[in-house]
Amino acid sequence: MDQVSERSPKRLGNLLEICLAFERPLVELEKKIHELRQSTENGIDLKGEIRSAEKKLEKALKDIYDHLTPWQRVQVARHPLRPYTLDYIQLLTRDFVELHGDRRYSDDRAIVAGFAKWNGGEDTVCIIGHQKGRDTKENLLRSFGSAHPEGYRKALRIMHLAEKFGCPIICFIDTPGAYPGVGAEERGQAEAIAYNLREMMEITVPIVVVVIGEGGSGGALGIGIGDKVMMLENAYYSVISPEGCAAILWKDPTRAPDAAKALKMTAQDLSQLGVIDAIIPEPLGGAHRDIEIMAASIRQAVHSALDELRAIPSKQLSERRYQKFRSMGVFAEK
Asked: Are 219 and 131 in contact (CB under 8 A)?
């Protein structure tokens, strides 16, 4: 079964150790399957028991993940084992060359950007994305995926380089929001994001955006203006975090689940509202349960989008992109 395929002992240990509250019923089944497989390695034939346990696990996963609340999807989007931008770059591309610095202040490690071979090496693409850390040290280095002004300026510099050489741009969004520190504000955080919004509207090569985890506010939009905007099934995209919304509306951050529902921040809600163009399905149990399958789904969706966009004359791309975003939020009063 692909959905509950055998994992390395280290990865299985991580999944069992780092489980979300609503996933706890799955832990005992995962442990049982692992123990049965170990017994099989010792020469005991337990294939029937393993298949039965796998079916139970798959059913339990389906029962839980088919009925996730918006707040539970937010928790899945923040899962510590969820794949990040560099994970997808490793699985989807070849010969990635990362470029650094905004040529004004410094290099922001919260955003990675560069060029790589795509589609088996046939095409060269520009890839830009937020990057979080796997431990405290790396998270401090990468500001927990929250970019500074120099990160957005670096991203735009490399987008213009991609435009110069006719390379399509792929952006991976995964941030709780732009970095909120005093230094970032002093260096023009709001201006850097606003400038990116304007400039990305005018870029004449295809831009495909994929929200792979968290899509928080202007921090996400700073690299989020695309001809095609897609979201992973359990990602979220919102003007504010559920906790921030709850703190403002009710002065009570514990009401984050209520805020998550009201914000319409899930892929399913945003697709109905016309904010995104497509939802990329995740493996049963979330992207962190089978990174290879998740990467294959992203490859297929992005490849299809690029094929469609390449057929559009470059002069029309920017105008279509501008009109696409201008049309959002239109409503009529009776």
From this structure: no
Count of CA atoms in the C-beta half-sphere (13 A) of 100: 4
Give me the residues paired with residue 172 across strands.
129, 210
What contacts 218, CB < 8 A, 6 or more positions away? 177, 178, 190, 193
The whole-model pTM stands at: 0.88
3-state helix, strand, coil in the chain (%, to 5): 55, 15, 30
Q: Are strands 169-175 and 111-118 parallel, antiparallel or unpaired?
A: unpaired
Phi, psi of 223 (to 5 degrees): -130, 25
Alpha-carbon span 248 to 246, nearest angstrom: 5
Q: What are the backbone dihedrals phi and psi of residue 167, each rounded to the nearest 5 degrees, phi first?
A: -95, 130
Measured CA to CA, the distance from residue 207 to residue 322 in angstroms comes to 12
Residues 188 and 305: their CA atoms lie apart, in Å, by: 33
3-state SS class at 251: coil
Cα 227–Cα 274–Cα 112 angle in degrees, nearest 5: 45
pLDDT in tens, 119-135: 887 899 999 999 999 99
Do 34 and 8 contact (CB within 8 A), yes or no? no
The helix-helix angle for 242-250 and 256-263 (nearest 10°) equals 110
Q: Are 104 and 153 in contact (CB under 8 A)?
A: yes
What one-letter code names the amino acid at 321? R
pLDDT digits (tens, 9 = 90+) for 183-195: 999 999 999 999 9
Q: Is the pLDDT of residue 10 over 60?
A: no
User: What confidence category does residue 245 fall into, taking pLDDT thresholds of 50, 70 and 90?
Assistant: very high
* Run of H or E residues at 273: helix 267-273
The token pair at 243 is 């906790």
* pLDDT-derived band at 59, boundaries 50, 70, 90: confident
Contact partners, residue 108, CB within 8 Å, separation at least 6: 102, 143, 147, 148, 150, 151, 154
